[in-house]
From TrEMBL:
Protein name: ABC transporter ATP-binding protein
GO molecular function, one term: ATP binding
Ranges for domain ABC transporter: 20-257
Alphabetically ordered keywords of this record: ATP-binding, Nucleotide-binding, Transport
PANTHER family, A to Z: ABC TRANSPORTER RELATED, IMPORT ATP-BINDING PROTEIN
GO cellular component, one term: plasma membrane
Domain of life: Bacteria
Region (Disordered): 252-271
Organism of derivation: Streptomyces cinnamoneus
Pfam families linked to this entry: ABC_tran (PF00005)
Length: 271
């Protein structure tokens, strides 16, 4: 399956609703001389049916921001919301249920169970929750990700790129309000990485999903509708309809900015 270069046709989100929001979010580790402010009063919104990339130098707070907004880590001050729900108001069990039912996750590690088929891995979280996926939606997700002919295969029978697509399908199947992806191409070769980014790009357009992706790669960021730049725990810049060159230029201006050299271009060609 082939994909156009990002932004060949400008994407305008169909909904102005906010999928997730942080307000004056701070995260501090340690005390006294060991005190480190990983996030310093960050305020940001992620709108529905939009693909946002988060970039910044190492230690800028990218993954911390994602973990706090997804309820995977506690915050020191401020507030975080998924839709209209403030995470700070939830107990542990409520927070677990919210992450399961309303948030999708994609990480570098595929986190697939080796004894289950691709389809069983895709539906596992919903099976555990006692819910059934919508058959039409599941079929659409599987078709969009190019997995229709691989559903009976176990992870060992799939390539790395196919395994990561299964992980993305697992995140999409519950129809979450937002998907958080932390360096999803980190364990993939160049071509598989380009294919996965194309699938994420397409899931926003064809399936109206909301994706927030942490990345070090300028080309990966160019698949997004918007790039948010962090430095020293603060949002310092933003770019819409990004190109890889524009992202590289912005990154070079940041303190400690040293963007990863692109391994593939926006059409999936290795360099």
């Amino acid at each position: 399956m082939s994909y156009p270069a990002p932004h060949a046709v400008p994407h305008i989100p169909r909904s102005g609703a906010v999928a997730a929001r942080a307000t004056a979010l701070s995260k501090v580790y340690g005390q006294g001389e060991t005190r480190v402010a990983a996030l310093d009063s960050v305020s940001v919104e992620f709108r529905r049916a939009e693909f946002t990339a988060i970039m910044g130098p190492s230690g800028s707070g990218k993954s911390t921001l994602m973990h706090c907004m997804a309820g995977l880590d506690t915050i020191s001050s401020g507030s975080t919301r998924i839709g209209d729900v403030e995470l700070g108001s939830l107990g542990d069990r409520q927070l677990t249920a919210l992450r399961r039912d309303r948030i999708g996750f994609v990480f570098q590690a595929f986190n697939l169970l080796p004894t289950l088929s691709a389809l069983e891995n895709i539906t596992l979280p919903m099976d555990i929750a006692g819910r059934k996926p919508d058959p039409q939606w599941l079929q659409q997700v599987v078709a969009t990700l190019g997995l229709s002919g691989r559903l009976a295969h176990r992870p060992s029978q799939l390539s790395g790129g196919q395994q990561q697509r299964v992980a993305v399908a697992r995140a999409l199947t519950a129809q979450p309000e937002i998907i958080f992806a932390d360096e999803p191409t980190g364990n993939l070769d160049s071509r598989s990485g380009a294919e996965l980014l194309g699938f994420l790009h397409e899931s926003v357009r064809a399936l109206q999903q909301t994706v927030v992706m942490v990345t070090h790669d300028a080309v990966a960021a160019s698949y997004a509708d918007r790039v948010v730049f962090l430095a020293d725990g603060r949002i310092v810049d933003e770019l819409r309809e990004p190109t890889a060159d524009a992202v590289l230029d912005r990154m070079r201006r940041l303190p400690g900015g040293n963007p990863r050299t692109p391994a593939f271009d926006a059409k999936g060609r290795t360099s």
